[in-house]
Design a protein that fits this description.
three-stranded antiparallel β-sheet, two-stranded antiparallel ribbon, 19 helices, 4% strand, elongated, cytoplasm, zinc, zinc-finger, metal-binding, Znf_RING/FYVE/PHD
Length: 421
């Protein structure tokens, strides 16, 4: 998503150096006069959207693996049954017919599974192709429409991450971008998240089993943390013998790599759930379930190659990083500055300050410095000049302004104030 900068002269500031007079053009001028430049910017920003292709591709691979395991299991069972019938010397004719009928029925079921699996794989392959076609369709003529779709995709992504599933589905349907967003993938995650919020680890453990090899490759601790929480719940319910049996079966295998955490959790058998000892009391805190939800989201994003932060936040931070200066946090910060709003300030808090204060804006017309006493103003074509120069021009031409570089004629009232920090 390209975030159109506010007309504040920021782009011009970055283009000037200390005490140097150069033609100063705001970002909007480039966007209006240089489509190729826009396409170049788009290419750079798409590097942040690797998940646009990665997510359906990972889902495609996951479907193939699941279908392969299912078919392999069924084929193995059929071959085993055939071998049993072939090795049996005392099988009657009726029993043989019954066994063969059962095998035929099982093979027919396997055929249906193969056909269903093939349809599912084709759907995922088609989704990957649709997204590739969407990326290839962008050109200078449809860039505005393409960016509009892109904004909606990013909004759907944000809504899904914030659990606004119904709203995300409605926006995707109304915009006809169902193939370009990952609603199905997030709905899969929703089942696990809802279960964890209801203090049920079953769906989460099933998810871990489905993705065991990949979680193991990334050295994930998520399954271990789920097992610990299930043990804690048994202790909370005072099912101590059951908790011990559970620990022997599910926790002991983790002892070689997570002995310290295992020892701490096993000690709760002695301290019990009503302990006041902070080290063990925290294990019974209901917020542990919120921690598991957060941990699952991180593992889920990593599994599908998604960014941990929503794309909307990333793009907003990219824009805010160019605007953030110490002046933005002062009481007299202009209301035209996005960072005058508390939500934007919070989002920009971890970002470094822009280095704009090392630059100076020099008016192209008067060659005078543009500052708070002589602030810059932006013409409709995006070019920036000083207030002093533009006022003098307007007074001499009945309120008309003529851009000395492009020849554009406009009214003084059409100018937009820019701010500098």
């Amino acid at each position: 998503m390209e975030i159109d900068p506010l007309p504040n002269g920021t782009g011009a500031t970055a283009a000037t150096t200390t005490e140097t007079t150069v033609p100063t053009t705001a970002p909007t001028a480039a966007s209006n006069t240089a489509p190729s430049s826009k396409l170049s910017q788009l290419t750079d920003s798409l590097k942040l959207e690797h998940q646009f292709l990665r997510v359906p591709f990972e889902h495609f691979k996951k479907t193939i693996r699941a279908n392969h395991r299912s078919v392999e299991k069924e084929v193995s069972a059929v071959i085993s049954s055939v071998a049993d019938v072939a090795d049996s010397n005392e099988l009657s004719k009726d029993d043989a017919v019954l066994s063969l009928t059962s095998l035929v029925s099982r093979l027919q079921g396997l055929k249906r599974k193969l056909e269903e699996g093939n349809r599912t794989e084709n759907l995922h392959a088609q989704r990957c192709r649709t997204r590739l076609d969407h990326l290839e369709s962008v050109d200078a003529e449809n860039l505005s429409e393409w960016n509009n779709i892109r904004v909606k995709r990013i909004l759907v992504d944000y809504m899904l991450r914030m659990s606004y599933y119904d709203t995300a589905v409605k926006l995707a349907q109304s915009s006809n971008i169902g193939e370009l967003v990952d609603i199905e993938v997030f709905q899969e995650a929703k089942k696990v998240i809802d279960a964890l919020r209801n203090q049920d680890v079953g769906p989460a453990l099933a998810w871990c089993a489905d993705n065991k090899s990949r979680l193991k490759k990334s050295k994930s601790k998520f399954e271990f943390q789920l097992r610990l929480q299930e043990f804690i719940e048994l202790v909370r319910a005072e099912n101590y013998m059951r908790a011990i049996l559970y620990a022997r079966r599910y926790l002991a295998p983790w002892g070689a790599t997570h002995l310290k955490e295992l020892q701490q959790v096993m000690t709760t058998l002695a301290f019990r759930s009503n302990t006041e000892c902070a080290k063990y009391k925290v294990l019974f805190d209901p917020k542990q379930w919120d921690f598991l939800v957060g941990q699952f989201k991180q593992e889920f994003y990593r599994l599908y190659g998604m960014t941990v932060e929503p794309l909307l936040n990333i793009y907003l931070q990219a824009g805010l990083s160019a605007l953030k200066t110490p002046y933005c946090y002062e009481d007299d910060c202009t209301k035209e500055d996005p960072l005058s709003q508390e939500n934007f300030r919070k989002l920009a808090m971890p970002l470094p300050y822009s280095k704009q204060h090392h630059s100076k804006l020099v008016c192209y017309i008067t060659k005078e410095l543009m500052d708070t006493e002589n602030p810059p103003q932006v013409l409709p074509n995006g070019y920036v000049y000083s207030t002093k120069a533009l006022k003098e021009m307007a007074e001499k031409n009945n309120g008309k302004i003529t851009c000395p570089r492009t020849g554009l004629v406009c009214n003084y009232s059409e100018l937009v104030k820019a701010y500098i920090s």
